[in-house]
């Protein structure tokens, strides 16, 4: 799967949830529901932090972790406070 398809899959998965889903990469915070934001930021070689907060965060965290793993992306799931 190419970069564009990977980003589209992540955005589609993120938009299934009400929770806020944000990636932190190089001191930038990117809304995982934003195609343009992710496309210009996500990298398969660097680790991104994945922050999920909201009413369905348990399900969203599991789904987002699965999609990142499926596409071979490095990530660190940050615990909510």
From TrEMBL:
Domain HPr: 3-69
SUPFAM superfamilies in the cross-refs: HPr-like
InterPro entries recorded: HPr-like, HPr-like_sf
Gene3D superfamilies: HPr-like (3.30.1340.10)
One of the Pfam families matching this protein, by short name: PTS-HPr
Protein name: HPr family phosphocarrier protein
């Amino acid at each position: 799967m190419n970069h564009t398809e990977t980003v589209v899959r992540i955005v589609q998965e993120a938009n299934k949830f009400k929770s806020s889903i944000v990636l932190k990469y190089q001191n930038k915070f990117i809304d995982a529901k934003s195609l343009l934001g992710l496309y210009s930021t996500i990298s398969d070689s660097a680790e991104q932090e994945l922050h999920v907060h909201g009413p369905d965060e348990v399900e969203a965290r599991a789904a987002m972790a699965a999609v990142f793993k499926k596409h071979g992306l490095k990530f660190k799931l940050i615990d909510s406070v």
